[in-house]
């Protein structure tokens, strides 16, 4: 694969770059931040040095179509990972920027592919559980909390609107034969890199606090909050495996992918089993992010991804926590 990773310095991008380089792919990267200031910190610059890839990191606006066109042509990219995004909480605070970063930049990438349609460039786009929203007339949301791949997508955040619109726009470009667009709906993602302004950040905050030995933390969610989560290693592998899946086997352009769905309280209990004395002070509700979380499915049904491109997750809750407590501590030691 000749990959171009846009938004390479973010929570997903840093781990995707590590995975792609480690798997021997040719990778070019763009981000507003220099590698050493990415979500992975100085470790990112060290990683690029190790692979001799430092000069393929471009500190540039990854949402600027002119910049992207230059990089696509220079590196003869066959696959573009479009990762720049404002998440659910920050998107509500700055809707104009959310639309520009999430949507207009995707449109720019798709138009670029259209102009080079003979190359059939793949565009891999992370969608989200935020693409779902309350079901009209169904109090309590999804039946048994489970959203199947094709259930109505009626998000209540602008972030979710950009994800649904992105899925549909990409599918239309694919239908016209202009871009090979593919998308996964990610759950909340957990890794050693700090997240950036989402509603699922409560879980990342709990993990970071436990790893750093903070034994009493305040969170913004209720104890019974339950949404889907996934280890970042599973998430980036999903992006790459979907990119590599033979087109003939795919019947759709957007896929649910699932891993685990612990409640916030179950996550805290699993952390407390490893960090003695770890306790969480729960919120009674009221934070806008709680409302977004309550509007998302508690569990995703990912049967089409399993059937059509062999998706499966590898990290259950215990393995995820053991791995990430270690990864956060080791990242802290190098920051
Ligand atoms: N993690 C995202 C958010 O909370 C969901 O995709 O906004």
Please tell me about this protein's structure.
This protein is of the alpha/beta class and 335 residues long. It has one domain: Rossmann fold, CATH 3.40.50.720. The chain contains twelve helices and 13 strands. The protein has helices at residues 11-22, 42-50, 65-74, 88-93, 95-115, 158-175, 201-211, 232-244, 264-274, 288-294, 303-309, 317-334; strands at 2-6, 26-31, 57-59, 79-82, 122-128, 146-147, 180-186, 188-190, 216-218, 229-231, 254-256, 279-281, 299-300. The protein has a seven-stranded parallel sheet, sandwiched between helices. Strands 6-13 form a two-stranded parallel ribbon. Strand 2 (26-31), helix 2 (42-50) and strand 3 (57-59) form a beta-alpha-beta unit. Helix 7 runs parallel beside helix 9 and helix 7 (201-211) crosses helix 12. The structure holds serine. The site of serine (SER) has 11 residues, from loops. Serine binds at residues 87-88, 128-130, 159, 186, 188, 198-200.
